[in-house]
Give the backbone structure.
Amino acid sequence: MSEPGYEVFWREAISQIRTILTEQEFSVWFGVLEYLRSGENEVIASVPSTFYRDQIKIRYQEIIETTLKGLTGKDLPVEFEIHPRNKAESAAEITNEEVKKNDSSRKKAVSFEDSREKSPPQPKDPHPQLREDYTFDRYVIGENNNFAANAALAISRNPGTAYNPFLIYGGVGLGKTHLMQAIGNYIHENSSSKIIYTTAENFTNEFIQSLNEKGMAAFKNRYRHVDILLIDDIHFLENKSGTQEELFFTYEALYNSKKQIVFTCDRPVSELKNLTERLRNRFERGLNVDLHPPNYETRFAILKNKVAAGNIPIPDGVLDLISKNVSTNIRDLEAALTKLTAFVNMVHQPVTIEQAQHLLRDMFASPRQANISIELIQKVVAEYFSLSANDLKSKKRVQNIVYARQLAMYIVRDITEYSTTEIGQSFGGRDHTTVMYSCDKIEERMKADPNLEPTIESLKRLVKEAGAKL
Ligand code: ADP
Ligand code: MG
């Protein structure tokens, strides 16, 4: 199969980006970044370590993708593969001092670099697996994460006793990894505990490697003799029975010697599939807390905090604009900020509301940002027909209810990304075929009735307006 080959575009994009960076900055970050290959809809680049991957992602992924889009007219996400070059470039060898030294030209744009400079000298070396900026200090507390953050702090102060295990769950970009690492950083700073942070994916890979290399004893030794074990994204373990088994025994060893274990997961443990009962039971044993998407006030506070820390000249009006339009998660808020920061660095003056609106228009228009849930659509459609949302979920077969229900399903299908199965579930546990049938019916009706389309359009508008007010 021949490759689409975006290499030429890649090279052009990189040379365009070069013009807006200092030579030093360019060589630090782009000197290690190499084009690897193209997929159908993405470009894969290589970086020498997770450190570089994470930093490059935070700093430059947006601008690379935006530039590529400008050149190709296509959304081409950039993915990074780690290909260590030689020892000197591995993550552990790159000290923060070096980064700071090499990076002073840009420090205003990257908040955590800045604060690192302001904070008093660390009495201790940073933990090699933890990001230094993932601390409690940097974690803005709102009603969405209040309980989780306080529990995490309690655990940090009293590991192994307060809540064990501690499991944080919630959707992407809501701050699970940050909170988990904040626990690690806190304990690292205040004790000599042996801490391991890893992802479930990494744990799995290491486990598999240890099988091949007969390194089982070393693997067990490493994981069963720690004081604090932090395992991120355990949903990765679905279907991996061998690794589940190993984790179970690791868990038992640590738990019985009162060592603190912390997990994160992208959904409640009860919703994980193909997980052994005994491991599910262990996950659920201690304290499970969830993170929710932040509300407007918290979104604004998070942005405010980040621009203050990074000394980025972005006025409150623009932060308000972002807070109103980006409602999904904190990662998306950060992406908006990164984009504006790149712009500010280019033009060397504060960004105006109009400029921000223009720069972020695609992000704002994304259906993900619309705060639109199935419940909201049901509510709006029900109100429109003077029915209740429960009528739409009920089994009632009265003609006007059936019609409203079909319309609501059609709109959900049209403007959200829910699957027909999820839609069916939310409409009183109906089957996905019923949802498909309803959508077909509405489409048929639209062909026959010229008034229906405008009705649907105005309903969609009502839904979006209601979503924006949330
Ligand atoms: P998850 O692991 O849930 O996908 P992350 O912990 O990676 O999410 O968070 C995504 C980004 O948002 C990170 O850069 C993190 O620092 C930031 N973040 C998340 N929650 C907060 C918060 N409450 N205050 C400040 N920054 C946050
Ligand atoms: Mg995470």
Observations:
- The pocket of magnesium ion (ligand 2) is lined by residues 176-177, 232-233 (CB under 6 Å).
- Residues 92 and 251 are 27 Å apart (CA to CA).
